[in-house]
Amino acid sequence: MQDVVTRIREEYIIEALNSPILFGDLSKMEKYIAESYDGRSLIELLQNADDAGATKFRIQKINDTAFAVANNGRLFTELDLQSLCRSGASKKKRGQNTIGYRGIGFKSVVNYAQSVHVISGDMRFTFSREKTSNLLGAIDGVPLIRVPHNFSDSQFDGIINQLLKNSLTTIFIFETFNSKIEQEMESFNNTCMLFLRNIENVTLQYNDIQTINVAIRSNESKDRVVTQLSNQDGDNSTWITLGNPPINSIAFKYDSLNKQITLAQPEESYIHCFMPTTERFLLPCKINGDFSTDPSRTRIVIDEYTKESLSSIVHMLTKQVVQAIKNEDDPLKLVKVLSQIQVSPISKFVGRKMNDEFVDILREKLTESIRLNYGQNTLYLQPEWLTKDDLKVITIKDAYLISCDTLDKIDGLRTLLAFIGVKDLDIDIILPFSLNHTLSPMARINILKQLILKYRFNLSEQRKRIISDALIIQGQNGVCSLGQIRNSEKINPNYIMELETMLGNIDDVRGFLMKFNINTDICGKQINNVKTIDIPKSPITKAFGRQTIFSKWRSAEVNAKLLLQEQDDIIDVEDVSKRNIGYDLIATMKDGSMQFFEVKSVNKLGDEFTLTNNEYLTALDSPTQYNLMIIQQDDVELNACIINNPLHALSLTKRIRSYEWLCEAYTGELLKRDLRP
User: Fold this and answer.
1) What are the b/e assignments for 582-604, b being 16+ CB within 10 Å?
2) Helix or strand (DSSP H, E) at 455
3) Are strands 201-206 and 170-176 parallel, antiparallel or unpaired?
4) Are 220 and 226 in contact (CB under 8 A)?
5) Quick one: pLDDT at residue 523?
6) Strands 275-280 and 286-288
7) Is the N-terminal amide bond of 246 cis, ω within 30° of 0?
8) For residue 615, what are the contacts with CB-CB under 8 A and spacing of at least 6?
9) What is the pTM of this model?
């Protein structure tokens, strides 16, 4: 193959002699390219090795002025040599499952090399400005990577033979004039291997330091790859890549034990164009695609290639989200990560970036797919304060209501759907159903809150008449309307105080009520010592049925749910603690009735606890269904005290500072479980 090197050398020497000015221009362009790739030479060599099918990649310091870079990929051909010599003449084509395609990345080595030797099978050649200048004479400006010379430097035979014995078949030796390549070795991050197809081992050896970076890939399915990255320095992480690596895919930190996605740190969340760019990604993960970049491959350029790659990735993500909604299950926790999405507040000042394109495409594709999934109906989210019983009397036409049951089963779904424009069921749709039906306490107070926010400045007479007749007010003697308040009934002061807490401004409450000729001055009054009834302690009489393993590491709500599930007269327990509806658990009894349980955690039974005004109003509205479950747990034991109808059973003191109800002493039904393994 040496005659091939000689022939190509002669071609370029003749070209240089015939066009010396052009040859000088090539030298300047080479320098510009190298400066654009500053700090990225190592990863450019790594991606070239991956494109060559290599599984091993090694960089080894030979001495203070020489480094060897080797891989076990396919051997060099004459066409490969021509591609190196000519700028932009790579034989790799865009979109053909290769990383590089420009044919200029290798010229980044000009940053630190004064000569480059390449040994690959029978092909051995050298790039050297000195040797090229000796052949050309007085030409001003000589590029390094242009004219190949036959390799004849025996001083590197030892390292070459050593690498060949280790099955490394293509070797580059760089004679350097600065420490840049060593600096790149020191800053190497093994996540550079994440979107490669073939490289499994990257070894860096310099100054008596050897770091072996390993990537172990396993296919979870056709479009899911789990990659474990590790080295002996402790840089270990596991990622799951969704899509079609190495092209158009997205990688998430992965908890392989629980088989769930976790959130990557901001410093890990970058946009990759096969290799990392310097642009951060707006989600806590990494995104990779056949994106267009500037010459340095560090900044993304928005063009049709970039948009097409983004659309491909978003299409894949959208399918996963729709499937999760259909199944009411998202075991991978993908939706939770996607719900972190947000629009950059400075994008309109700095111009559109790739993150802005991603946001727009995701919003468009998700909206289209989710509406199609629900038959093109208008979509609403069930407000967290509407209960199942409320929904029994609320009917909506030509629309679909996504229930809290679905929203609660998939972490982040409510946030993600709100991001694409799906709104909570409108207050004007809900209001008419409160004219003839008594909705739950949380529904009633939230209806009034929403009405105050929406109509405090502009309330028509027609809307005023409807609101006046709505059964949304907690009076002293029960549920009533604003019209009834105006005539005879009085508002329960706790109701007004809870409204003030929710709105943060008592003036808004007063101003709205005055529109209905209701002048209230009861806000802020203190109520002390609600009726006290002592209940004798009673041992638990129910037999334990299903035996459950309890854990000291679980939250009080989780252990409370497990305790209730053991009771023979309870057939199901639902955790609604995230919905802020005045209680944490709903228990379905064997007779079909419901019991509500608010869980309070204390250090020891007998410690004081507080009720929020929201909890107080709910207990007031459903006295016989409402229960407090006081939980005490330590390393050894779990104890629970259940108190039915707490407003009747307990002595409560109103604390005005935060509108909460304080209980300093209580008795109830005791449940106890051993937490020792």
Assistant:
1) bbbbbbeeeeeeebbbbbbbbee
2) helix 441-455
3) unpaired
4) yes
5) 40
6) unpaired
7) yes
8) 582, 583, 598, 661
9) 0.73
